[in-house]
Write a structure and sequence with these properties.
Length: 317
């Protein structure tokens, strides 16, 4: 399919822009904090250091967009629609790139399968990493806000399934969370969202249960957790899957059952990680685990403050 140079990721510095001509709708069929999350914001630091629009580090050097991530590959395979955040004319389309291809195969095509939309009055939106074969728009097509343009994928330079949404005004990248260029220590004076997504400096993607410590590949695939476990399970394990963690963050894991707390532990994160998981477990000490409902809680703390918490349940029978 036709694909124009407009789909190349632009890494120039951001500048202020007027907001009266454009307001963005949420671009995915998902609910933030439940079945999707913002993995990375735009980088506002012109040096090799990084800083998102709220003075935190949920970004990476030179990142000129917002990454909306799915929890796992299973969610990607099930299909999550990407919708036009603003209407306009399609001016660039690419499809056919494999999801999860090695980086050596995506040189010069880091956006992967994607779409660029000319929103008028100098505005342009770009959608990257869409799932192969999912695109539903064509070059030159006029589309309205909310129209489906494809599905979230992992094509191009993408380590996990997500949508990279970037916004430009007269060719310059603009952060829709802070279009007015507010000092990051303060609330942004101007956003370009119809309903601004709440800021979270990191958080939890999932809490799950197993009878052994799962592999990271199984967690990322979405097939690690179990809803039921047998009473003769060799062990009871709880894991927390997190994003945007920083050094010295604490992941507090707790598993309790019909007879009280089975295991609990504070795990200290030893370095910043875009995504990671930690697990704790207890081997069976008697002939069987008490049957019933078990509750697991994963809490992410930073400098003593809770920044996210998730609960889950597993039935032992």
């Amino acid at each position: 399919m036709i694909y124009r140079a407009a789909l190349a990721l632009i890494l120039s510095s951001a500048g202020p822009a007027l907001a009266e001509d454009l307001q963005l709708a949420f671009p995915l069929d998902c609910t933030l904090g439940q079945d999707c999350h913002i993995q990375q914001y735009m980088d506002h630091d012109p040096s090799s250091a990084v800083q998102d629009y709220r003075c935190s580090g949920l970004t990476y050097d030179g990142h000129k967009g917002t990454d909306f991530a799915l929890p796992d590959l299973a969610a990607m395979e099930a299909g999550v629609s990407v919708r036009a955040a603003a209407g306009g004319m399609v001016k660039g389309v690419r499809d056919g790139m494999e999801d999860g291809a090695p980086l050596s195969q995506v040189q010069g095509r880091e956006c992967g399968n994607g779409v660029v939309i000319d929103n008028g009055k100098g505005w342009e939106t770009q959608y990257c990493h869409l799932k192969r074969g999912s695109l539903r728009v064509t070059d030159g097509q006029q589309i309205a806000e909310g129209d489906v343009i494809g599905q979230v994928g992992q094509s191009g330079r993408a380590a996990f399934p997500h949508l990279h949404l970037s916004l430009r005004h007269n060719g310059e990248p603009v952060d829709p969370f802070d279009a007015g260029g507010t000092d990051c220590a303060a609330e942004p004076s101007e956003t370009l969202w119809q309903d601004t997504p709440p800021y979270r400096p990191g958080g939890l993607i999932a809490v799950g249960f197993a009878d052994h410590v799962p592999t990271y590949a199984a967690i990322k695939a979405g097939d690690a957790g179990r809803e039921t476990l047998p009473t003769d399970a060799a062990a009871l394990v709880i894991y927390g899957y997190s994003y945007g963690t920083q050094k010295d963050d604490i992941l507090r894991l707790r598993l309790s059952g019909p007879k009280g707390v089975v295991i609990e532990k504070d795990v200290v994160m030893d370095k910043p990680q875009a995504q990671s998981f930690r697990a704790i477990g207890k081997r069976m000490a008697s002939r069987e685990w008490p049957p019933g409902r078990y509750t697991g809680t994963a809490t992410l703390l930073r400098a003593g403050r809770v920044i996210d918490e998730r609960n889950g349940f597993v039935t032992v029978r």
